[in-house]
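ok new one. same drill as before - structure tokens go in, u give me an amino acid for every spot. 316 of them this time. try not to just spam alanines like last time pls lmao
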């Protein structure tokens, strides 16, 4: 039995389950970004996924894998971001209740989105302890199944399906690069990539202000994120217990970029590709524009993870 919580076979199984539930997002190219990076880039556009982020894949797979009795009691999570919206919509598609714990400080646009998908929202103080306690009380009261945003085997397998689709379209890539926060996308991506081609290089990109995965890889042990400080609000979480062994086994290297570099990449995605990508989704391109990949890695898949941006608070 594999020591890892998820296998390539799990990602393949997730792809079959998700085919009728999620968008098969397009793969785009941009001559300007190829020239600036000095490589041939293929962008997997998960910002065009339902709820505007790859998170819908993992949430949909986790909900679809529940037993009939579990579905009857619904699902619960704590999140102020894309996972909250993803789980709310995934539950609505299955016709089951969703209970979402959100901090009182959550942006109103995200609250409105979660509520619009029919979820019941419980507000709490904006601390991790308060979130976890509120979720625990809901699970006790309702019998709902808790779906972790990234440290969940079904979620990880679902996230890996984006890379599976990318490699079906562009099979001869030298490398894939994606952002890393909790590690659900990066671990799923690496399992999919190495399941198809064990020699394919997989890189994760991370903000300097939330570089726990980089430090974990440097020390060989999982490091806490501490007090993160970055514009990439989707990458603030510490790498997970389930995701860390997968990343340690499969990731070539973690590349770190500054907030200024992230903003520059985000602006280029908007202005040259005409794609609305959030700061977290621009992190991999920032690494490429600053030539952090080794030479000889010429044909690169880039996962644009999300496009949920507060248009009233743009970073420029």
């Amino acid at each position: 039995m594999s020591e890892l919580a998820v296998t390539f076979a799990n990602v393949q199984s997730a792809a079959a389950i998700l085919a009728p539930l999620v968008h098969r997002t397009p793969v785009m190219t941009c001559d300007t970004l190829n020239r600036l990076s000095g490589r041939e880039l293929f962008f997997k556009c998960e910002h065009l996924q339902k709820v505007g982020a790859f998170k819908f894949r993992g949430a949909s797979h986790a909900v679809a894998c529940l037993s009939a009795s579990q579905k009857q009691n619904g699902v619960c999570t704590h999140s102020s971001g894309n996972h909250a919206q993803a789980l709310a919509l995934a539950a609505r598609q299955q016709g089951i209740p969703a209970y979402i714990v959100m901090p009182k400080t959550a942006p109103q646009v995200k609250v409105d989105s979660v509520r619009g998908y029919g979820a019941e929202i419980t507000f709490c103080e904006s601390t991790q302890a308060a979130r976890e306690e509120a979720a625990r009380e809901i699970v006790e009261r309702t019998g709902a199944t808790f779906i972790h945003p990234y440290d969940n085997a079904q979620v990880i397998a679902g996230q890996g399906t984006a890379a599976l689709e990318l490699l079906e379209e562009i099979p001869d890539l030298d490398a894939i690069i994606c952002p890393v926060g909790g590690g659900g996308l990066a671990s799923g991506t690496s399992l999919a990539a190495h399941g198809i081609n064990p020699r394919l290089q997989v890189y994760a990109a991370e903000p300097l202000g939330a570089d726990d995965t980089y430090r974990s890889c440097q020390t060989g042990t999982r490091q806490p994120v501490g007090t993160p400080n970055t514009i990439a609000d989707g990458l603030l979480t510490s790498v997970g217990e389930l995701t860390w062994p997968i990343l340690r086994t499969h990731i070539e290297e973690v590349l770190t970029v500054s907030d200024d570099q992230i903003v520059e990449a985000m602006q280029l995605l908007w202005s040259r590709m005409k794609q609305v990508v959030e700061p977290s989704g621009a992190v991999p391109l920032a690494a490429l524009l600053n030539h952090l990949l080794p030479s000889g890695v010429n044909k690169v898949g880039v996962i644009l993870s999300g496009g949920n941006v507060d248009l009233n608070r743009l970073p420029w």
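The two ends are 50 Å apart (CA to CA). and btw Residues 172 and 312 are 40 Å apart (CA to CA).
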